[in-house]
């Protein structure tokens, strides 16, 4: 979303967007910076871009730039400027300085409010028909391992009217899928309540408001901290089929002792009960989570609790991360560190066990018809790739459709089989767009 806003702002200032570095004067690398592997990937991307186009200016933007602005400028001669993510309206100045070879740092600290209304994005970097919409910035949860609040600041919820206008605009322009994002969507509106100066609203209230938008679309809610699940969203989803019963609940662990050390309040029992309640209210629910293994102090008993939880909860989708020791976080100084080798082995064990669980969960859809948003054609074959409501972009499996369909087309299709993490589906009819 930040990349799209940066692009729109520059285009509005008269700059031209070009698809490859060959034609560019300035290349902006929008980075991630919350764990070691993401930092490395970001730096490698910037270096390989400069190696490919040594005559072009490279502006390093995003979370890594916000977190280490001066260090990047001092240590990366390949970079022609550093631009943080606290105030994207300054991109014009950052771009001009980088183009002029001034090697400037523009990375003011995060503010405590979201003052500006949304900036209309002209170019979405998603596949056609899909968009991400940010509803909050920052996070107040302060999990002890997490650097995100250091980078993005404390929680600031966006004005509900502003979110409504943006979603309505996107739907009017033909967007079918809207993925609501933020660090923890369950916290939406908590800061309004605390300040007392804004209208009281929470995530269920926001979903009900978005439900009043007319049209053919689906909304998926991503990332809800499981310790304060906003129960009202179940009712909103039950009332409007366009609100996908998709839940992304990053449990991180199931051992109460370890969760406490992470500054989280859950336990295996509490999380099993949460999932049982969701599944009983909306039996078709799709549940995604992430686990964090190798946190300081994680012993064999904790790991057994996590594996037992995994076997019992039967998540539809699961991502597993090995703990990354981040400076500036409380856990940085925690004792009893787990070796990287052991953390990697635990990660693999969980991932290996999840294959069969995901397979079993996906099989319940065989024989049912779903609406597929086509992302792309498979080159050299008469096949297309798309996603149903149960498949979030980038992280989940896909639906493989028999036939050539244009990206952005909506196809009603019957699921015939599960292959790995993907569905094989037979098109029934095209709801929107071209197909064959
Ligand atoms: S809720 Fe998520 S973003 Fe917020 S501190 Fe915890 S892990 Fe970080």
Task: Give an overview of the whole structure.
- Helices cover 33% and strands 21% of the residues.
- It is of the alpha/beta class and 436 residues long.
- It has a 5-stranded mixed beta barrel with strand order 13-14-15-17-16.
- α2 links the parallel β1 and β2.
- The mean pLDDT is 95.
- Iron/sulfur cluster binds at residues 139, 141-143, 146, 148-149, 183-184, 225.
Short structural description:
Helix content is 33%, strand content 21%.
For the structure shown, list the relevant keywords:
436 residues, alpha/beta, five-stranded mixed β-barrel, four-stranded parallel β-sheet, 14 helices, binds iron/sulfur cluster
Low-confidence spans: none
- Helix tally equals 14
Computed over alpha carbons, the radius of gyration is 22 Å
Q: Tell me about the biggest sheet? A: 5 strands, mixed, barrel
How many angstroms does the end-to-end distance come to?
A: 33 Å
Strand tally is 17
- Overall 3D geometry? globular
- Strand-pairing-aware structural class: alpha/beta
Overall mean pLDDT: 95
Note the beta-strand portion.
15-25%
- Share of helical residues: 25-40%
> Strands of the biggest beta sheet: in what spatial order?
13-14-15-17-16
Bound small molecules, deduplicated = iron/sulfur cluster
